[in-house]
What does this fold into?
Amino acid sequence: MGDDNRPGLHGSVLDQLGTLVVSGEYAPGQVLRIEQLEARFGVSRTVVREAIRVLESMGMVSSRRRVGVTVSVRAAWNLFDPRIIRWRLDSGERESLLRSLGELRRGVEPVAAALAATHATPEQCGELTGAVMRMAVHGKSGDLEAYLAADIDFHRTLLEASGNEMLGALTTVVAEVLAGRTHHHLMPVLPEPVAIRWHAEVAQAVQAGDPVEAERAMRDIVEEATRAMVGD
Amino acid sequence: MGDDNRPGLHGSVLDQLGTLVVSGEYAPGQVLRIEQLEARFGVSRTVVREAIRVLESMGMVSSRRRVGVTVSVRAAWNLFDPRIIRWRLDSGERESLLRSLGELRRGVEPVAAALAATHATPEQCGELTGAVMRMAVHGKSGDLEAYLAADIDFHRTLLEASGNEMLGALTTVVAEVLAGRTHHHLMPVLPEPVAIRWHAEVAQAVQAGDPVEAERAMRDIVEEATRAMVGD
DNA sequence: AACATTGGATAAATCATACTTTTGATCCCC
DNA sequence: GGGGATCAAAAGTATGATTTATCCAATGTT
It folds into this structure.
């Protein structure tokens, strides 16, 4: 699966440090000294410094002379950084984060659907209907993984078809939500047939160039998803 | 203004490099060699490498042995990184980015308003109504800067009151949109009285704990804003 | 001729170390 | 007790040495 662990010591140290901070083992306000981190991870100063720099650019720590590296409060973090999202998903707050991301999705995807209705290329329309068909097939056969892949394809294509780069950049977030939902059994064993129908309606409305209908159908999808999670 | 240029060579080099990449002077696919960057900026390897690491963590470049530092295609960038947003706002694509961010806002803020209606604390309700009052005062007097400050306060408070960290993290984005709009004269000289009324309706609905009404009123606000920009 | 193997060159990655600068803390004098 | 000089700690910067991955081409094999 999406393991973008770059080879390289610094990436490994970054990953470990991020996990430690997210988990709270390194709590906000705590100061780390570079020398201590060198020892802890058994790497050179260069490597530690580069990892710290990246962490600093994500707002998770701040480095000051004569003081050391201070872990920042959560309010300062760039919560949209994909690494932070992954670290949080891998930690104890997985469930609450999925809820937050689901609410974000609820706002963003209907708008993306409306925009896609006026911006989608014929190729993208084809991808959308193709994804819906695959969802229908695998939904009936009960192959949840294949269903998930088709679902992700659908939403990725739609976000890209919105013609809005910022919405397109949320593809990874949406994919994480969908994957997290199935992998943590927050979904029925057999997908709701009505969900598939709504996806088909979105695809059709996009193809027909009807923003209002596309937005409505997409809103049905995400609100059903919200209900399903709340009801868990 | 919000100049978080950390003192330090590496931050300065990072800023220059980011600007060069965003502007297209360093185009996707182009390879940079570290030695060459040392010379260009007159700094040591250490500094260049740390800047490159941060840029890499933002997805703007990728560094590979034996080949060098390659500028990545835009699709790989973390478009939600505050630095990238600032660099793009400072570049020629300012206007198109503001449009994209406005569309994002259109999706996110109504959801935030609905959530705020069930999560806002009394203090946050007070801040909201206070911000609306300041908007009314400065809107009538024509003090656009003070009006902007109150407007930003309103939306920041609302996003925080949603109780959703991800939505709260979008405060900077919304603030940039609002500021960019006034500073680039995409707004009428005197704010629409109806806009102020809608803000008041949101504040009232939030205080009353009415998510549906809060969402509707907020939708009025952001859709009016979209219309105003499109009509420019 | 097409393909696999090997070897060398190259540039980043890592390590080690020395030097600089900032800044919190202490001490001293008034 | 307050204010300024001084000290020292820790990050910041610079640089040379060494390691490692990998592209490229030359060579050899089928």
Remarks:
- The first strand of chain B starts at residue 31 and ends at 32.
- Residues 8-10, 43-47, 64-67 of chain B lie near DNA strand D (CB under 10 Å from a C1').
- Chain B has a mean pLDDT of 93.
- Chain B touches chain A through 36 residues (CB under 8 Å).
